[in-house]
Amino acid sequence: MVREMSRAKLMQIWVAAVALVAVASFVLGARVTLATAGALLAVCLGPPAVLLLLWPRAETATIAGVLRDVDRRE
Predict the structure, then answer these.
(1) Of 41, 37, 39, which is closest to residue 49 (Cα–Cα)?
(2) pTM given for the model
(3) In percent, how much of the chain has pLDDT > 70?
(4) Cβ-proximal residues to 10 (8 Å cutoff; 6+ apart), any chain
(5) In this structure, is the dihedral angle defined by the CA atoms of residues 54, 55, 57 and 62, taken in order, positive or negative?
(6) Could you state, in order of their start, the residue ranges of all structural domains in the chain?
(7) What is the pLDDT of residue 40?
(8) Is 19:44 a contact under the CB 8 Å cutoff?
(9) Contact at 8 Å (CB) between 15 and 48?
(10) Average pLDDT over residues 2-13
């Protein structure tokens, strides 16, 4: 399932899930302080930043691949 998902969609789901947990904890009476807000921001933005750095990108064309036409289908 994750292989068919784009990076942007996966990050949107992550941010929405963290926001939902934050709203639920606020509604249930959790105290919101500056430290709590900073921790929530780190939890919300940290994993998407790592995801952007580690997600595999499309392979770049090499000279050998271009010359030999590696992707040619017969």
Answers:
(1) 41
(2) 0.58
(3) 88
(4) 2, 51
(5) positive
(6) 7-68
(7) 83
(8) yes
(9) yes
(10) 77
Assigned token pair, 41? 């921001």
Identify the residue whose tokens are 């990050």.
Answer: 11
Q: Which amino acid is at 46?
A: G
12-44 pLDDT, tens digit each: 888 888 889 888 888 998 888 899 888 888 888
* DSSP label of 33: -
What are the phi and psi torsion angles at 4 (to 5°)? -85, -10
Polymer length in residues for the chain: 74
CA distance 12 to 48: 9
pLDDT at position 74, please?
Answer: 53
Cα separation, 26 vs 61, whole angstroms = 50
Tokens of 19: 């926001």
Intra-chain end-to-end CA distance of the chain, in Å: 30
